[in-house]
Write a structure and sequence with these properties.
The complex is a heterotrimer. Chain A contains 17 helices and 24 strands. By secondary structure, chain A is of the alpha/beta class. Chain A folds into three domains: 235 residues, Rossmann fold (3-Layer(aba) Sandwich); 168 residues, Rossmann fold, CATH 3.40.50; 77 residues, no CATH class. Chain A is globular, with a radius of gyration of 24 Å. Chain B has a single domain, classed as ABC transporter involved in vitamin B12 uptake, BtuC (Orthogonal Bundle), CATH 1.10.3470. By secondary structure, chain C is an all-alpha fold. At the A-C interface, helix 10, helix 11, strand 20, helix 13 and helix 14 of A face helix 8 and helix 9 of C.
Chain lengths: 509, 370, 375
């Protein structure tokens, strides 16, 4: 152990946010040339720890030690000077700037008063070649695909001569193939002496690529282990603190008649680009159709078109034979749709309203919640009480602002509201994103319940494991088109991954 | 900038100019009319250009500034007041007093902007409310002091408004002198050259405004400062992660914006007319915002848009000159009321976006929280 | 899970919210008064006498109170107008123009309708007609901006201000032209007096306060009821807080925006209409200058709550009314009041973290980071 070279160490780091102890006496170290994975579920404190190391916040207690010396970190400038670079989960890139402008921001090369774009571009090309990153310095970042944008972020760190690179949930936006590419780049980097901290909540990745694994839970470090000494079940146990069933209990179910039929739908996004091209599929009662695909392939616009939030430019949508193409949300809701939106805080809830008001968000306008245009508070409260109990929403009362609830409970409010109506079709878009394991389990079981009751379920998710666990059939979306529809039983993760990456444009039904 | 927008601007300007030429050509040759209109347009567009530049700097950094009107008003007042004080109380010469007046105006603009910055950046007050507070404060402050300082008890000026040391002089660009030899003995040639010269003979702030357009453009798109400013307005978090101090950048840009507005204020009371009237800015601060939006938050675009507004105002002014020759069918033009509405209706029309969609900086108006 | 019931009784609710909401405005007013006093001292006046004059002039006698109520009436309407728009996520700076439009049309109906018809009208028809027409025209004036916002995205801040200037210029044109009072002694820009049948009676003999004041209080209550107890109010508030969620909830966002602006304009138009029919019995150019900005200050200070607005309106009215006495006692010009009001607003804005308007703001409270599972 005396031989190993510790490049970064944190001792006794503690950070308190209002109402939450995000980091509780954390100890962690990183050795030179290793890939050290930091594993934990959403909210475990991993990102907080990294933000502290990176200088975006200051710890209440504890030290950060770089190459044996205690570092005084006041801002990201200090961290960068120490040779630490970070690739954030949500990219810190400016879409309207070029790659070169993004890379040089904060460290601009200036010639006689004006920006020296040429010099920066040259250096980027050099780094690009050296590490096999293939980045064009003059491209506008907003036009680049997600995988390339991530590489720009990596180039940013290397441009500043980073020896320690922190990757925060890098695979959240990548196809399985792109993730493999990323792992290759990571190994290349470590071969050249760069040390990497790799933050994730995905067990499989961690076992595949890490040299050491540290598990965090509720702000504390639980343990640090070697991949060879552990397995998924044990890691999951450490992450959550109890036995976790990694599969969903799902029995075979006979699907009934077609409920949702989508024919030749095309949709344009706000930039007036066609993001959904000629998509067709159908969902029957009692089955779950999962749409797999990495974010940004048109899923958002597709679900907006199906739920009335956006008018499609072509095609037809019918529910139970009724043509609902381009109709407003209320009409579609009344036709039997339950919509669990992708962005719960933006579409699904009004955070300043009480839980009770949110429970009636889509139904306030008809009896019993209102009579002749006047709201009926008693009915609203009664309804809220009933639903909070039935769906186990953890809240001090029905009159708390929805914004005060945890992510999981917020989602439960939405689920409670949507699934308590008599519905024929459920469209769930990224329903468990950012949630803790308990909430994820709950929502998964609710989805299966609806399916078993004969409701048609359309599940859109970027988490391939979730799709495979819940769906009876899977459709893969790539660049706005459905490139495959298969029965879950008849396909594999690898094949889905290939379709998600655009390889193999062969449609199986 | 796209051609649709430039085309629209050119079209409106041509229309406005044509109207004046058609009416006035009975009295004066077209070239004289056009050059006169042009000269007036450039002069009158000055506060709008400066106001729009103010908006550009603030908003490119992410701070919405609807207090430009209030900043102009206070700057106009304190600049004028400063000049008077320097002249009457400190006994300085005309030229120095006026110059100091301009300085005071610029400083006042900067101070009012500082107030906006504190409200919206540090206290994270909604920026539109912050701007409105500035506007209300401006009206109250200038109205009160205007009355109190001159007519109030114990006033240094004993109950009357003293005369201002004057206005900034027009600067003569020697085009006539340069081209006179070419004209030789031809009278008409000389008259034409003189007419053209009048377009270029402008007052200092007007010239300064045009210069500042190009300087601003360069700074915004070719310097480190400009890159960082724009970064802070598009994605402040990204800028933060590379070590840029978002607050500092925003403060600095807002204050710079304020100084531009201050210079615009100086135009009203030190370059245009040597006196102050309550509410003399008359909506120009808000029209500047429309110019900024229409110019897609770029200095040169804003300048072009400001010229359109300037042209409509020039139309009004020139109609007074040709009032006696307006044909009866067009007598409505004489009605300053209808023509006077042009800037406002034009603004609303531009804001509908028919002429072209515009994209503000992505983080415009959003207070930054770490 | 504990309490199932909503926080009890109406009075308790009101008292609680007054307490919570009034602390910061109160402090703001206090600070402004102090700073105002310093400024008075600075320009050579006596602050104590000035403020005494202010209070005497606004509350010191039956006549003073009546005058304060007279000033408060349009303030309440205009403040409600701005507040309603705020609740809907819109910034209505055009109250001034909408008020003027309302006043002009009310006056027109008031003096011209009998002429056109050729016979006199009974009060119970003429008066409501004058008021309603003024109200509707104010609504249209604002509704145009609402339409522009909903269908073209044109920002209501600039558009309402432009409409203000258009309204101002148009009223000036009309009042100097075809609507001018042609009586031989008149030289200023104003309409003829409106017919007796279009006038609101004063409440007490000899005092100017009229039934329009009572109407203002009623309307305040009505707006409170509308916003908080009806589905329309729910829709307006939802669009104001989170238009994306509103769309998801099935609300027609465009229609709501237009409707909100229309209602807001109606209230401002009502302010103008009531001034014409209840106080001046005509419309005179220049009488309404400044109401627009005052209305914004009142709405902000009153936190867009009808009760808060009534109180703030009273405060501003008291200040305006008392200013004349203050000037009489201390030679402090009435403009000082504008400054103090501006200062109140300034301190209020600086102290309070205002959560109005911009949807960008309505992301709401910070969510507690998830820990483990469940709440």
């Amino acid at each position: 152990m005396a031989e190993t070279n510790i490049v970064l160490e944190v001792k006794g780091i503690t950070k308190q946010f209002p109402g939450v102890l995000a980091n509780d006496n954390v100890n962690f170290d990183l050795r030179k040339g290793e890939i050290h994975a930091l594993l934990g579920e959403n909210g475990a404190g991993k990102s907080t720890l990294m933000n502290l190391i990176y200088g975006l916040h200051r710890p209440d207690k504890g030290d950060v030690i770089v190459n044996g010396k205690i570092a005084a970190i006041e801002s990201p400038n200090d961290t960068i000077a120490l040779g630490i670079g970070m690739v954030h989960q949500h990219f810190m890139l400016i879409p309207v700037f070029t790659v070169a402008e993004n890379v040089m921001l904060g460290d601009e090369t200036v010639k006689r008063g004006s920006l020296d774009r040429a010099a920066v571009a040259a250096k980027i090309v050099e780094i690009s070649k050296q590490y096999g990153l293939d980045v064009d310095p003059n491209a506008m970042v907003g036009t680049l695909p997600v995988g390339l944008q991530q590489r720009v972020e990596i180039v940013k760190t290397l441009y500043r001569n980073a020896e320690i690179v922190i990757l925060d949930e890098p695979t959240a936006v990548l196809t399985p193939q792109e993730a493999e590419d990323l792992f290759r780049i990571m190994r290349d980097l470590t071969a050249r002496g760069v040390s990497i901290i790799f933050i994730t909540h995905k067990l499989k990745e961690v076992l595949a690529v890490a040299d050491r694994i540290t598990v965090m839970r509720a702000g504390r470090v639980i343990n640090t282990v070697l991949p060879s000494e552990t397995d998924s079940a044990q890691l999951a146990n450490m992450m959550v603190g109890r036995q976790v069933i990694l599969t969903v209990d799902k029995k075979d179910h006979e699907a009934t008649e077609e409920v949702l039929r989508v024919e030749g739908i095309t949709v344009r996004d706000q930039r007036d680009l066609e993001t959904v091209h000629n998509v067709s599929f159908s969902v029957r009662g009692g089955e779950v159709l999962g749409i797999a695909g990495v974010q940004g392939n048109g899923q958002t616009e597709l679900s907006e078109a199906l739920t009335g939030l956006r008018t499609p430019t072509g095609g037809k949508v019918t529910i139970d034979g009724r043509d609902l193409t381009g109709k407003p949300p209320r009409v579609i809701t009344e036709a039997g749709l339950a919509h669990i939106p992708e962005d719960r805080q933006r579409h699904g809830l009004v955070l300043s309203y009480t839980v009770a008001d949110n429970m009636a968000l889509c139904d306030y306008y008809h009896p019993p919640f209102s009579q002749h245009g006047v709201l009926q508070p008693k009915a609203l409260d009664e309804n809220a009480r009933k639903l909070i109990k039935a769906f186990d929403v953890r809240t001090p009362s029905a009159f708390v602002n929805a914004g005060k609830l945890s992510g999981g409970n917020q989602q439960k409010v939405i689920v409670a509201r949507e699934l308590s109506r008599p519905v024929k079709l459920v469209i769930a878009n990224q329903p468990t994103r950012g949630l803790d394991v308990g909430s994820i389990e709950y929502i998964h079981s609710e989805i299966i319940k609806m399916r078993d009751r004969g409701v048609a379920v359309l599940l859109i998710s970027a988490e391939l494991d979730e799709i495979m666990a819940l769906s009876d059939r899977i459709a893969v979306m790539y660049r706005g088109q459905i490139v495959a529809i298969v029965e879950t039983k008849k396909t594999t993760r690898e094949q889905l991954g290939l379709w998600m990456a655009g390889a193999h444009v062969e449609t199986a039904q | 900038m796209d051609w649709k927008r430039f085309g629209f601007i050119a079209l409106i300007i041509i229309i406005l100019f044509s109207v004046v030429v058609m009416v006035g050509q009975v009295k004066q040759p077209p070239l004289l009319i056009i050059t006169s209109m042009l000269a007036t347009t450039i002069a009158v567009a000055t506060p709008l250009v400066l106001g729009a530049l103010s908006g550009v700097f603030c908003e490119r950094a992410g701070v919405v500034n609807i207090g430009i009107e209030g900043m102009m008003l206070t700057a106009a007042f304190f600049g004028w007041l400063g000049a008077i004080y320097m002249f009457h109380i400190f006994g300085l010469g005309n030229g120095i007093s006026i110059a100091l007046g301009v300085l005071f105006a610029i400083l006042t603009g900067g101070l009012m902007a500082l107030l906006l910055a504190v409200l919206s950046i540090t206290f994270k007050v909604d920026q539109i409310i912050g701007g409105t507070v500035i506007n209300i404060l401006a009206v109250g402050l200038t109205g009160f002091l205007n009355r109190q300082l001159f007519f109030g008890k114990g006033s240094v000026f004993g109950g009357s408004v003293p005369s201002s040391p004057g206005v900034l002089p027009t600067i003569h660009i020697p085009i006539t002198e340069l081209f006179a030899p070419i004209c030789g003995a031809s009278d008409t040639c000389l008259i034409n050259v003189q007419a053209i010269n009048r377009v270029f003979d402008q007052k200092p702030i007007a010239m300064g405004a045009i210069l500042l357009v190009f300087i601003s453009h360069y700074i915004l798109f070719n310097t480190r400062w400009g890159l960082r400013t724009r970064a802070v307005g598009e994605h402040p978090k990204a800028a933060d992660t590379v070590g840029i101090n978002v607050s500092k950048m925003r403060y600095a840009n807002v204050i710079i914006g304020g100084m531009f507005a201050g210079l615009a204020g100086a135009y009203f009371t030190i370059e245009s007319v040597p006196s102050f009237e309550p509410l003399l800015t008359n909506g120009r601060g808000f029209i500047s915002l429309a110019a900024m939006i229409f110019g897609n938050w770029t200095p040169i675009g804003a300048w072009a848009a400001a010229l359109v507004f300037g042209a409509s105002q020039a139309l009004l002014i020139n109609m007074q000159i040709f009032r006696d020759v307006i044909p009866p069918a067009w007598s409505f033009l004489q009605e300053s009321y209808i023509v006077g509405l042009t800037p406002y209706i034009l603004t609303m029309f531009i804001l509908t976006g028919i002429i072209g969609k515009t994209t503000p900086p992505a983080a415009d108006g959003v207070p930054y929280e770490k | 899970m504990q309490s199932e019931k909503r926080p009890s009784s109406l009075t308790k609710q009101i008292l609680q919210s007054i307490l919570d909401a009034s602390l910061i405005p109160f402090l703001a007013i206090l600070t402004a008064v102090v700073v105002g006093g310093i400024i008075i001292r600075f320009v050579g006046g006596d602050p104590i006498r000035a403020y005494i004059g202010l209070i005497q002039g606004s509350l010191g006698s039956k006549k003073a109170l009546s005058e304060t109520a007279v000033w408060a009436t349009p303030y309440i309407f205009a403040g409600l107008a701005v507040a309603l728009a705020f609740k809907g996520g819109l910034f209505n700076i055009g109250a001034e123009g909408q008020l003027a439009v309302g006043a002009v049309f009310s006056a027109l109906i008031g003096y011209a309708l009998p002429e056109w018809l050729g016979y006199d009208l009974p009060t119970f028809i003429h008066l409501p007609l004058a008021i309603i027409v003024g109200m509707l025209m104010g609504g249209v004036w604002a509704g145009i901006v609402g339409w522009l916002k909903a269908y073209t995205g044109g920002h209501e801040v600039i558009n309402t201000i432009m409409m203000n200037y258009i309204a101002l210029n148009t009223t000036s044109f009309l009042l100097n032209g075809i609507m001018k009072d042609r009586s031989p002694t008149n030289v200023i820009a104003r309409t003829p007096l409106i017919a007796e049948s279009a006038r609101i009676e004063p409440i007490f003999e000899g005092l100017r306060v009229h039934w329009g004041f009572v109407l203002a209080l009623l309307v305040a209550f009505l707006i409170w009821w509308l916003l908080n107890k009806t589905t329309l109010g729910f829709e307006i508030r939802t669009v104001g807080l989170n238009p994306d969620a509103a769309q998801y909830a099935g609300i027609n966002v465009k229609r709501t925006i237009i409707l909100t602006m229309f209602l807001s304009g109606m209230l401002a138009g009502l302010a103008g209409a009531i001034e014409v029919t209840g106080l001046n019995y005509r419309h005179e150019l220049g009488f309404s200058i400044g109401y627009g900005y005052d209305a914004i200050a009142i709405a902000l200070l009153g936190k867009s709550h009808p009760l808060g607005i009534v109180l703030s309106a009273f405060l501003f009215a008291a200040m305006r009314n008392g200013a004349t006495r203050m000037q009489f006692l201390t030679q402090m010009p009435v403009d000082l009041i504008s400054m103090i009001q501006a200062l109140i607003l300034l301190f209020f804005a600086a102290d309070a973290i205002v959560r109005y308007i911009y949807r960008i703001k309505s992301k709401g409270e910070r969510v507690v980071l998830t820990r483990g599972w469940g709440g």
